[in-house]
Amino acid sequence: QVQLVESGGGLVQAGGSLRLSCAASGRTFSSYAMGWFRQAPGKQREFVAVFTSGGKIDYADSVKGRFTISRDNARRITYLQLNSLKPEDTATYYCNVGGAWGQGIQVTVTS
């Protein structure tokens, strides 16, 4: 069973940047899509970005041009680079690999 460990969150001012990492273990990593989702207080979890096993990348409209997803299959890590952060990006961010969820990591953006 895949296990995921996220890191890299924190507190940042609007306009700043963060890089989230999600390290996976337990399964063949390269055959799975890797996605990032987020959940703000009082809201439902929403899609942020995905990097499929075939190399297709997609983003939510709200983050296009600001966030970048990447993956390192050899190291079994997926990254989410967050640039030009806005207060509305404040949320707990989760990675998903093969249906398994990470524990979530907090990103807080102050104005």
Description of the structure:
Helices cover 0% and strands 53% of the residues. The chain is mainly beta. Strands 2, 4, 5, 6, 9, 10 and 11 form a seven-stranded mixed beta sheet that branches. Strand 5 and strand 6 form a beta hairpin. The mean pLDDT is 94.
Short description:
By secondary structure, the chain is mainly β.
Shape: globular
The main sheet comes to:
7 strands, mixed
As a percent range, the share of helical residues equals under 10%
Strand content is over 45%
Structural class: mainly beta
Give the rounded overall mean pLDDT: 94
- SSE pattern: EEEEEEEEEEE
Number of strands: 11
Count of helix runs: 0
Flag low-confidence runs. Answer: none
Query: Whole-number radius of gyration?
Result: 13 Å
How far apart lie the N and C ends? 40 Å
Keywords:
four-stranded antiparallel beta sheet; mainly beta; 111 residues; 53% strand
List the helices and strands and how they pair.
Elements: E1 3-7, E2 10-13, E3 18-25, E4 34-39, E5 46-51, E6 57-59, E7 67-72, E8 77-82, E9 91-97, E10 100-101, E11 105-110
